[in-house]
Amino acid sequence: MSEKLKETGNSQAGNISRRDLLKGIAITAGVVAAGTVVGVNPIGAAHAAGNCPGTTPKAEVQYQPHPKGKEQCSVCANFIAPKCCKVVAGSVAPTGYCIAFTPMPA
Ligand code: SF4
Description:
It is built from 3 helices and 2 strands.
């Protein structure tokens, strides 16, 4: 590569500058991120199909369909409305509770 090419950042093949290359990478990353938000989110897609992502059996975490005081699924960080949990297998009730309860960050 000649000194002039090093200075400008241009390559001889196709005359693509580093700036153009970085723009292309940024655009690609933006499109991927937008696709995730718009509807290709794997957790959202699984939930829409009725398949919740949790895998731990309810008995293992002592799941119950009623709250324990003020602790319940609807205020747990693992809850995915309206009826899924990131931890527990199958559907859960918003009013349910288990020992994996994790308070939502304030
Ligand atoms: S309380 Fe248990 S079952 Fe309910 S969302 Fe939290 S981790 Fe899941």
